[in-house]
Amino acid sequence: MEIRFVGSGDAFGSGGRFQTCIRLQEHGYTTLVDCGATSLTAMKAQDLEPGEVDAVVLSHLHGDHFGGLPFLVLDAQFTRRTKALTVLGPVGTTTRLHEAMEAFYPGSTSVQRRFDLNVIELGGAGGSAGTGPLTVRSWEVDHASGAPALAVRAQLGGATFAYSGDTAWTPALITAAEGSDVFVCEAYTFDKAVRYHLDYRTLLEHVHELTTNLLILTHMGPAMLTRLDEVEHTTAHDGLTLQTWRRRITYSSKCTQPGHAGCATGELLAVTMPLPPWRPIVLFRFRRTQGSSTDTRWSLRVGVEGVAPPRRDRRQSRNRTPWRWVSVAGSTPLVRSSKKSSIPPGTAMMSLRAGPWTTS
Fold it and tell me: Is the peptide bond prior to 277 cis by the omega test (within 30 degrees of 0)?
């Protein structure tokens, strides 16, 4: 699945960023997660075709998260769109969308469209709803917006994307993030408490509870943007694009280090961040069995260029990029902006170069 931050900013365009709009695409199916008022402009500035959008998932009904939807619908009318458009949002989405369109362009809701506009309202209690290959779950969070505000979880093409929306800290975020490939979370301020929003310092107190493969911070205000050099986690910016894929992997040969012999099975998550100053990253979660004991670890693979799943025999690989492997205990590896290295300091190195990989 491709994840692109079309807009990563707050409501006020801090840092010159567009309002929230995250584009998910897999096998020709395109979903927007939130559609802030600037989203149509941002898409066209980045040469993205609005007509490709199949579905829009809304976290809540504030203008910087759903205010671009009326313009997306009107653009579709004027470009003679025929493909159906599905909107999944909190209870009240149907009414709010109608009111917004009538406020901006009176009479626009009575126009006969060439495409179907379908609205599915999400309950916010962990239930699921879907359209085409997209499945969405939602949990109500702590953010006043005149309608329920949601953390959402979208599954598309075997990958899972989770998003906090705007919210103060709530245990619902733990549930939403659980087992996700990518969890995008608000960090509006660095350490100042703002009602109904999440600051980075509070997030750090709970980050160990978030069992996601990759945590990315977004919706950052001015105070947060001026302190990015103090942030230990990946931060979003407009245009940031990630590619993810999952594969089942079995590693069955003997490891060269004492105590690491045995069989490991698990899943591979590859994440590429090709825009400077990022390096490609591959995350591999595996379960290793030795006799009667089993443990689960993370490995983090860092390279200078190119990302590819392990080949059947890495020793015969044509990819001569100098890869490094690290073993990271626990369920959430630390992934940081790479200056000289993306490997967390103090992490023990281990070799997994011996023997072939068998994939299924």
Answer: yes
